[in-house]
Amino acid sequence: MMRRFAKWTAAAMIAVGLLSGCTSEPPWRTHDIAGLVPELSFALTDDRGRSVSAKDYRGRVTLLFFGFTHCPDVCPTTLARLAETLRSIEAGRDDVRVLVVTVDPARDSTAVMHQYVQAFGSQFVGLRGDAAALDALTRRYRVTYTLGKPDAQGNYEVTHSTAVFVFGRDGLARLMFTPKDTTAAIAEDLRRLILASNHPKG
User: Fold this and answer.
1) Which CATH number do you get for residue 17?
2) pLDDT tens across 149-184, in order?
3) pTM (two decimals)
4) What gap in Å lies between CA 164 and CA 46, rounded to an integer?
5) Which residues share a beta bridge with 46?
6) Rounded to an integer, what distance in angstroms lies between the CA atom of residue 202 and that of residue 37?
7) Do the beta carbons of residue 176 and residue 35 sit within 8 Å?
8) Separation CA 189–CA 71 (nearest Å)
């Protein structure tokens, strides 16, 4: 969707291809970003109004997605696919959290975020922050978003990157899911990651 992010994604996939020949581990079915993306780090407010940071999710496999509640297509489709995937996983499913960071905090209040994410399941958590916190986080993961000009009714479009970043229980980046990845591939990689990083939660 966004040209700069697409170029970075392509570069990351090329790097993944080069690295895959140097390991005896079987390849992931999605996109291996270990060593290419920073560890999970943020300080935001969750959809229950609590101040949270990445440390609160250590010990869990954590998925990070940037979107907004007024999104007509990509966001609900992506989150619905993740919800479907999680329902297909039995062992370790409760140790997975999907963090949804809004890129439209002006419209996405804490209450709005809570109602939105709960529609997908209890493992989904809405996160929001001020402009400085959001900009710092999107820069960290090279995520792009743009707010359009409001129309006469105050409505506006938002464009944003569509990738889902996946972090192991140790907070290190492991995988990236894109809209082209199948639900089966995502489920297989999540099962493998859950088992590979099966450490007690903190």
Assistant:
1) 3.40.30.10
2) 988 888 899 999 999 999 999 999 999 999 999 999
3) 0.85
4) 18
5) 127
6) 23
7) no
8) 27
In-domain check, residue 106: yes
Whether residue 47 contacts residue 117, with contact meaning beta carbons closer than 8 Å, is answered with: yes
Give tens-digit pLDDT for 17-70: 555 555 567 899 999 999 999 999 999 999 999 999 999 999 999 999 999 999
Decide if 174 is inside a domain. Answer: yes
Q: Residue 53 carries which side chain, given as an amino acid letter? A: S
Instruction: Kindly calculate the radius of gyration of the chain based on its CA atoms and give it in whole angstroms.
Output: 16
Q: 3-class DSSP state for residue 163?
A: coil
Q: Convert the pLDDT of each residue in 98-107 to its tens digit.
A: 999 999 999 9
What 3-state class would DSSP assign to 86? helix
Q: How far is the C-alpha of 148 from the C-alpha of 136, rounded, in Å?
A: 20
Q: How many domains is the chain built from?
A: 1
Q: How far is CA 128 from CA 44, 65, 69, 152, 184, in A?
A: 6, 12, 12, 26, 30
Specify the amino acid at residue 66: F
Classify residue 103: in a domain, yes or no: yes
As a whole-number percent, the residues of the chain with pLDDT over 90 amount to 76
Tokens of 24: 């005896």
**Domain that residue 60 falls in:** 3-196
Considering the domain boundaries, does residue 202 fall inside one? no
Q: How many angstroms separate the Cα of 71 from the Cα of each of 23, 78, 112, 196?
A: 40, 11, 13, 34
